[in-house]
C-alpha cells in the first residue's frame, strides 16, 4: 500500500524538492555576493528547512532529537551513519548554530541548482576521490577553517550509504586529518534511523508514511584515546542507539 501511494505522491514531493532548489539558486547568489557569508548561511539554512519539509508531502516525518548540552563557539566533528542523500538537509538545518560544514565529492560542485553553489562557497571541503593529495589538502584546509572560525564539520565515516540501514565500519582517516589542524574539536555521534526506507524502492517511487529520526548522542572528548579508538566508540554508540550493537 505504501509503495502504491508512493507512485501517487512522489511526483508532488520530487517537484517540490527541485522547485525549492531552483528558487534558492538566485537567492543564494544575491545573498553571498551582496551581503557575504552570514547572509548566505541564513539563506542556506532556510533552503534546507524547505527541502526537509518536502518529505511531508509523502506522509513521512522528520524528528531531530538533541538532548545534549553541546557548546556553542567550539569546533565539533559530527559523525553520522549514512542511509540516503535525504540525511543531509535536516543535519544542515538543525545544526545550523554550529556552522556545520560538509565534506563532499567534487563532482557535486557542478550542475545541481542551489546544492552546487553552496558546496562551492559554503566553506566545506570538496574532495576528488581520484586525487589523494588534493583530498588531504582539502580536509586540512577545512580543519584550519574550523579552528579559525569556530566552525564544525559533518562526516559520514562509513564512506558510502547503507542501503539497508545496517551501520558499516567507520573509517578514521578524514577525522584524523581534521583533528591535526583542529585538535580541540569535540566528537559528536549522530544516529540516523529509517531514512533509507524512504528510498527502499530506488529513486522512484519514494516510500510513504515513514518515521525518520536523527538523534544526537553523547559527545566524546578528543585526546581521551587514539583517533581510531574514538571513532570506534562513536560507531558503537550509533549502533547501540539503532539497536544494532
Pairing-aware structural class of the strands and helices? alpha/beta
Using the 3D structure, state the CATH architecture: 3-Layer(aba) Sandwich
Largest sheet properties:
7 strands, mixed
Tertiary shape: globular
Number of domains: 1
Report the order of strands and helices: HHEEHEHEHEHEHEH
CATH homologous superfamily title: Glycerol-3-phosphate (1)-acyltransferase
Please state the average pLDDT score.
Answer: 95
Helix content percent band:
40-55%
Spans where pLDDT lies below 50 across 5 or more residues: none
- Taking strands numbered 1, 2, ... along the chain, how are they ordered across the largest sheet? 1-7-6-2-5-3-4
Distance between the termini: 32 Å
Number of helices: 8
CATH fold title: Glycerol-3-phosphate (1)-acyltransferase
Kindly state the number of beta strands. 7
